[in-house]
Amino acid sequence: MKLHNIIISITFASILYSCESVKSVEGVVIDINKTPLDSVLVSDNTINRNILTDSLGRFKYIRMGPVRQGLDIKFSFSKKGFINHSQTIKINKSTKVVIIMNKDETK
Hints:
- There is one protein chain.
- With 107 residues, this protein is α+β, with helices and mostly antiparallel strands.
- Helices cover 18% and strands 42% of the residues.
- It contains one helix and seven strands; from the N terminus they run αβββββββ.
- The protein has one helix at residues 2-20, and strands spanning 23-31, 41-44, 50-52, 58-63, 71-78, 85-91, 94-101.
- Strands 3-2-5-6 form a four-stranded antiparallel sheet, with no helix packed on it. Strands 4-1-7 form a three-stranded mixed sheet, with no helix packed on it.
- Strand 2 and strand 3 (50-52) form a beta hairpin.
- The radius of gyration is 18 Å and the shape is elongated.
């Protein structure tokens, strides 16, 4: 019976720890006219995860595991017809950002 209680306690503690170690960045990518940009490729420089913005320009990057509070992660944003944009974002429990991309007028 004691072993059963210990296993339940360890499992519960593991679940609590994993919830506490979730960090996220939520954002929206817009152009200089404040128009949301869909299908922008958002990538990071740490684990090479790629995500796309939705039809309203929104994205959500979730990082689980032992990530220290205030970790700086460099993100890259790219979309055909726009100048690639890079920005370092400080990751906290829940970080919100607005990214502005400029049209590539050279093409």
